[in-house]
């Protein structure tokens, strides 16, 4: 627990988003005061804000502002005991349609956060939500072959997944903007001595994820099945990701924060690992088993930067923090399905609920 005696709040930028609100909830539940900083621009975030306030009341303060504006960022950072920076533009497709806006949010917005900490609160730890997209498409590096209903890497050395030693190769405007932010956060620890940690995350899923097509693909697949909508799969469906339940992700974040003396200056890959790896087609099979509904889908061209295979090597986190994923994929899917069905299922829709 951070600065419990002084009761200085933990600042969570993007704290009404999926991962952010789950982190804010965990922090408040354990007794931390939390300042949630969010522009409330995305689908579902207002609902998540109401959820946080209903659960924690005055322990959670909601600040409606944009990280592209440095003044409210400074005001929020000044009194924070720590900063969990998750505010971002998260869709590759949106980065392609408006690269400048993507850069301003992801790169410039992150620089605003770092400068506010450097100039006004340099003792505050900063944990940053990066992405596996900083490694690029990984096609040539990994080399994949098709086996049953998934791609598998050809190189024996990748059996445990992608480690932090994989060379960076930003691909797509989104990959470039997040990669730029990733490197700024890492460099501010080296050059300015800030207590920063970079979390390169892969496929986090769970309750409070609304499942739009461009972000949160597991939730999107499940929600499409619940609402009997056909899916579009970009690529061939054999591409593989490792899935990490949001409870396990939050545990890793809080452990890294609470042990900042060990984690400061480090970069970690955060995902479900090989035991929670699944292809898109395999997930469709699992959703059919879980829901009893056939999942309809069509195929479209690969998108820029789409990785045929990405599985996280989590050994760095496991070795330093004794962290390991505890929620198996099938169990995690059940929890997400229960939440989505309660939010978007036929009985809810008939009552007039909307996204």
Q: What does it look like?
A:
The structure is a single chain. The protein is of the alpha/beta class and 355 residues long. The chain has one domain: NAD(P)-binding Rossmann-like Domain (Rossmann fold, 3-Layer(aba) Sandwich). Helix content is 43%, strand content 18%. It has helices at residues 18-29, 45-56, 70-78, 92-97, 99-120, 139-142, 172-192, 217-226, 246-258, 260-263, 280-291, 315-321, 329-344, 346-349; strands spanning 10-13, 34-38, 60-64, 82-85, 126-131, 144-147, 150-153, 196-201, 204-205, 231-234, 240-242, 244-245, 266-270, 277-279, 297-300, 309-310. A 7-stranded parallel sheet has the order 3-2-1-4-5-8-13, with helices on both faces. Strands 14-11-16 form a 3-stranded mixed sheet. Strands 6-7 form a two-stranded antiparallel sheet. β1, α1 (18-29) and β2 (34-38) form a beta-alpha-beta unit. α8 packs parallel to α11. The longest helix is centred in the first third of the chain and has 22 residues, at 99-120. It is globular, with a radius of gyration of 19 Å.
Corresponding CATH superfamily:
NAD(P)-binding Rossmann-like Domain
Rg of Cα set: 19 Å
Ends apart, CA distance between termini: 34 Å
Major sheet description: 7 strands, parallel
Global shape: globular
CATH class equals Alpha Beta
Annotation, overall tally of beta strands? 16
Can you tell me the CATH architecture?
3-Layer(aba) Sandwich
Encode the helix/strand succession as letters: EHEHEHEHHEHEEHEEHEEEHHEEHEEHHH
Structural class based on helices, strands and sheet pairing = alpha/beta
Tally the helices: 14
* Count of discrete domains: 1
Q: Strand share of the residues? A: 15-25%
Fraction of residues in helix? 40-55%
> What fold name goes in the CATH topology slot?
Rossmann fold
Lateral strand order in the biggest sheet: 3-2-1-4-5-8-13
């Amino acid at each position: 627990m951070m600065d419990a005696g002084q009761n200085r709040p933990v600042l969570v930028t993007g704290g009404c988003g999926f991962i952010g609100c789950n982190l804010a909830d965990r922090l408040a539940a354990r007794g931390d005061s939390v300042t949630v900083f969010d522009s409330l621009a995305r689908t579902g975030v207002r609902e998540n804000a109401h959820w946080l306030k209903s659960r924690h009341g005055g322990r959670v303060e909601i600040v409606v502002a944009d990280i592209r504006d440095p003044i409210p960022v400074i005001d929020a950072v000044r009194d924070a005991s720590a900063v969990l920076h998750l505010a971002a533009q998260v869709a590759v497709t949106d980065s392609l349609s408006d690269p400048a806006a993507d850069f301003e949010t992801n790169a410039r917005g992150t620089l605003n956060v770092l400068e506010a900490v450097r100039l006004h609160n340099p003792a505050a730890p900063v944990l940053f939500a990066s992405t596996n997209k900083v490694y690029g498409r990984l096609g040539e590096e990994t080399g994949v072959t098709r086996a049953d209903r998934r791609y598998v890497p050809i190189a024996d050395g990748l059996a445990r997944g992608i480690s932090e030693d994989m060379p960076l190769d930003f691909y797509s405007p989104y990959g470039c903007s997040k990669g730029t932010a990733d490197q700024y956060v890492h460099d501010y620890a080296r050059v300015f001595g800030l207590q920063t940690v970079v979390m390169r995350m892969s496929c986090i899923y769970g309750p409070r994820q609304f499942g739009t097509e461009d972000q949160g693909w597991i939730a999107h697949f499940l929600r499409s099945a619940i609402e009997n909508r056909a899916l579009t799969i970009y690529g061939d469906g054999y591409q593989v990701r490792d899935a990490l339940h949001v409870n396990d992700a939050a545990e890793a974040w809080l452990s890294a924060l609470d042990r900042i003396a060990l984690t400061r200056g480090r970069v970690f890959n955060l995902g479900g690992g090989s035991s929670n790896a699944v292809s898109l087609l395999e997930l469709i099979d699992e959703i059919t088993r879980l829901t009893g509904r056939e999942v309809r889908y069509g195929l479209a061209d690969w998108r820029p930067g789409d990785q045929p295979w990405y599985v996280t090597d989590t050994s760095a986190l496991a070795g330093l923090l004794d962290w390991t994923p505890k929620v198996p994929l099938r169990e995690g899917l059940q929890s997400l399905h229960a939440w989505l069905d309660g939010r978007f299922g036929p009985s809810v829709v008939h009552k007039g609920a909307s996204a």
